[in-house]
Design a protein that fits this description.
about 25% strand, Rossmann fold, 4-stranded antiparallel β-sheet, binds adenosine-5'-triphosphate, alpha/beta, binds magnesium ion, 6-stranded mixed β-sheet, about 35% helix, single chain
């Protein structure tokens, strides 16, 4: 479903050059929930941004469903952003003045879906995340967990194959955080979606199907111990 091969990305030039991703290889199957961990500044968001078509890599390839990109500039991967991936952020990024239903509908309209159809799809997505009884609530009238559900509805509406979640539970209490991961799992199982989720929380990461650790510019399969940097092989 998603294959990333030998992806490299650095910033700056000359002596200030910083190589962040040094050859990332990873694969995510349809229906898989994968947690991505790693120290602050190791390049997790950078990797998500490239997979999400918001940033181009220096070299390497990405294939996601029918899309092939990696080094293409963001202006050339509009379709990836419209139909390939859905985004979820730590701070929800909802529009304050719009109801839950309108938040989801609006983003579908922006992606070119006609209004009536957009509203239909938005209702469906909000139903999937368990918010059918909150359609008319604006973000202020919703709990953090509910706001994140609206964001998830927005991300899954229009049935995109891959969800990219950058610390989706960072602003939530423990219970709401767990609920969000359960929702991800349910979406993976029921709809065959795949989720790539950045988290600093080992408990949440351990709920995923698989954990990847990003360190020193490359990814490795991981268990909790190495994700915490207590891997004895590191010898540090
Ligand atoms: N546009 C940019 N220009 C220059 N340097 C950048 C840019 N974007 C990211 N970086 C650098 O790349 C490195 C990786 O940043 P990134 O945001 O991907 O880390 P992260 O793993 O998501 O960290 P965190 O866990 O703190 O969110 C950092 O050193 C950062 O300063
Ligand atoms: Mg980050």
């Amino acid at each position: 479903m998603l294959t990333v091969e030998d992806l490299k990305k650095g910033f700056g030039s000359g002596r200030r050059r910083l190589e962040v991703l040094k050859g990332i290889d990873l694969e995510i199957k349809s229906g898989e929930l994968v947690a991505l961990m790693g120290p602050s500044g190791c390049g997790k968001s950078t990797l998500l941004n490239i997979i999400g078509g918001l940033l181009e890599a220096d070299s390497g390839t990405i294939s996601l469903s029918e899309f092939n990109y990696g080094t293409k500039s963001p202006s050339r991967v509009v379709d990836v952003r419209r139909r390939g991936v859905g985004w979820i952020f730590q701070d929800f990024h909802l529009i304050d003045r719009l109801s839950a239903l309108d938040n989801v509908t609006f983003s579908l309209e922006l992606a070119g879906v006609p209004s009536a159809e957009a509203e239909e799809q938005a209702r469906e997505a909000l139903d999937k995340v368990g918010l059918s009884d909150r359609l008319d609530f604006i973000p202020d009238q919703l709990s953090g967990g509910q706001q994140q559900r609206v964001a998830i509805a927005r991300a899954i509406a229009g049935s995109r194959p891959l969800l990219l979640a950058d610390e989706p539970t960072g602003n939530l209490d423990v219970k709401s955080g767990h609920d969000i991961i359960h929702l991800f799992k349910q979406l993976c199982e029921d709809d065959g979606m795949s989720v790539l989720m950045v988290t600093h929380d080992p408990t949440l990461a351990s709920m995923a199907d698989r954990m990847l650790l990003l360190r020193d510019g490359v990814t490795a399969a991981s268990d909790i111990r190495s994700a915490w940097g207590v891997d004895t092989e590191a010898g540090e």
